[in-house]
Amino acid sequence: MSRIGLLPILVPQGVKVNIQGSQVTVEGSKGKLARSFHPDISITLKDGSLVVARPTDNRNHRALHGLTRSLLANMVEGVTKGFEKVLELIGVGYRAQKAGNKLSLQVGFSHAVDFSPPPGIDIVVEGTNRIRVIGIDKEIVGGTAARIRAIRPADSYKGKGVKYAGEVLRLKPGKAGKAALKG
């Protein structure tokens, strides 16, 4: 039995949920999200909470049960609180600037790399080396942060590059023979 799928999703005050077949629309103070789910999974609104149920214990239905519940919970949380990912730039001369809606990164290349966020995503630059990706859709926020990080991922020898805040880098030792040759 899916433990996650059985948990009801509490709908806070001020959040409107509209269920039409397999299409669910959630509207809150931060915005509006809509998503289509698998038609076999039933979603109902009972006593101010969303309940997800599956028709059988089939392997696919068990997988979809927990997935659907998690996606719905993320939609409700997104329209009430929102989501954010924080990225840090590490390296001498590495910096980020906001130019209009675009993000301009100088991360060790001979040119600045411009990044345009998708609609519904706000990018805030704090100082010169901290970037906040903010939005209501968890999937798009995480994907945008991953695309920014992919421009110059932190390398495993010096740690230079773009990394998530709180990410722990395990640095590899350099060449062992280099120190022995100098002696």
Number of domains: 2
CATH architecture annotation name of the largest domain: Alpha-Beta Complex
Shape: elongated
CATH fold group of the largest domain: Outer Surface Protein A, domain 3
The CATH class designation of the largest domain is Alpha Beta
SSE-based structural type? alpha+beta
Helix content: 25-40%
Strand count, sense and closure of the main sheet?
A: 4 strands, antiparallel
Mean pLDDT: 92
Number of helices: 4
> Low-confidence segments, ≥5 residues, pLDDT <50?
none
Secondary structure: number of strands: 13
Strand content: 25-35%
- Please identify which CATH superfamily of the largest domain we are dealing with: Ribosomal protein L6
Question: End-to-end span in angstroms?
Answer: 65 Å
What's a quick, concise take on this entry?
This protein is α+β, with helices and mostly antiparallel strands. The chain contains four helices and 13 strands.
